[in-house]
Specification:
about 350 residues; alpha+beta; six-stranded mixed beta sheet; five-stranded antiparallel beta sheet; 8 helices; globular
Amino acid sequence: MNDQITAITANNVVKHYGGGVSPIVALKRIQVEIRDNEFFTLLGPSGCGKTTLLRLIAGFEQPTDGEILLYGDHLEGLEPNDRPVNTVFQSYSLFPHMSIAENIGFGLKMKGEDESTIDTVVKEMLALVKMDQFGDRMPNQLSGGQQQRIALVRALAPKPKVLLLDEPLSALDLKLRQSMRVELKRLQQETGITFVFVTHDREEAMSMSDRIAVMSEGEIQQLDKPKVIYERPRNRFVANFIGVVNLVEATIKSESDNEYVCTHRSIEFHVDKSSTHQTGDSVTLAIRPEKFDLCSPSDGLFQGTITESTYMGTDTYLHVQVDESTNLEVRCQNVHLEREMPSQGANVGLHVAQGAATLLED
């Protein structure tokens, strides 16, 4: 990934649907830069604006306000087929009457490339997805995963500057989706092309992305590396959307140059300082379930009773009732076969390492 070169710039992009006094606002002043050779993901629920932004980059829609630049060049007025981008959709959209080789070479043929060049590129693309022997087959002779691989290399064959992917894995079953995540990341790294990926699946986003923009109601709620998004969510929406989280109410007791000391009852948490809070404020802390360690009630920061225990193979999920307003979810790894997790009704203590809690903005 080249941190110095910006592939896509969205400057204060707004998108409204419908006219009159109450248009549907799909995007609200989106400001984002996507880097060259980056696997960038737009993550959010249905209706958050992620696909709308993708369609604006592709040229299928035009912004109501603002501008989109591709490697510094303005895109307004350019038709989709005049933009150096390609799009891969949920449906594979392979031409059923063409062979796999003809499908891959179609875009190159439309660009006027000679047969020798097309043949060379088709072979390169088939080799890229380890399907060298499939060129003469027809689309209906391939599995869903194979068809998706061909749809990807067909889009890559003309060597676009940017590849846009609109939930391309959603039609596949779980095992295929998991294997295709690895394949997609490998393709992006080997081709060096900027990928912009749209999904509502947090695992897809976390496993492949260099950076993630979490979107809600037409706005980017947080943009950062996957680890930061997960470990240090900015607000309640991001904390909840990116994974299971415990929200603990607290009060800011004191502050120093870099941190706040927050208290929940008599328990103190040291958290990174923000510009939005001050001493005395009531705040919400986010703590992921795996940040807790089980211990005896006398040794725990929290003490409570297990109200639910669910065995999930690699982990056991516990619900611990601490008081009338605090029910914590705890995730314990099943490392040792002989280890027995405390059962429902047992009293336990919970230890939390310093730095495990994050102060949310709202």
